[in-house]
Amino acid sequence: MENNNTYWYRDAVGGLWEEMGKLQFEFLVEKGLSPQDFLLDIGCGSLRGGIHFIQYLEHRHYFGIDKSKELLDAGMIEIQNNNLIHKNPTLVQMENFEFQNLNQKFDYTLAQSVFTHLTLNDIIKCLMNVEKVINQGGKFYSTFFENKKGKFYLEALVHPRSDGPDLTTYFNQDPYHYDFETFEWICEGTSLKVKYIGDWNHPRDQKVMVFTKV
What we know:
By secondary structure, the chain is of the alpha/beta class. It has a single domain, classed as Vaccinia Virus protein VP39 (Rossmann fold). It is 29% helix and 25% strand. The termini are far apart.
């Protein structure tokens, strides 16, 4: 039985630490992630997915970004415990999506359970900065709580959970939901094209979409 005090960070990112880490990793590999690719993991938290990606990717090819220094420190403990220091991953505390400060171009970008906590303005800021740092043909996979009722629907929505009671999302407060057409609108006039993927076995009904730089 794990010590809850020692592994506090696994609950801090919403639980299902091992399950969600494996899901993220297997999903991106299925979508074409190779060991030679450079990956930007936005909202990497305590590296539930990062541990798998660091082990899989080549030396210095993993970049994890999070606004919480405490979670990044916990992720470093996981790196040490898994004997992955030699892979030299980059972990950076960042709040304003200034990815260009990393001085690196990326083939894949992931934001799992990030847009669910962002206002629309912050999502736009994130996307415009991702556009600056991904290679042509690069992919940005992001999850979101979907509003299937359209952009004019302003009420709360209930989403099923496989690990507990149903979850409620909102138009104007965290956790947020969005309709997919809003993301299509954001991409107008940019080099990003967005495609709806939908279900990917997420236990809390988050859908997934992919932005491609064309």
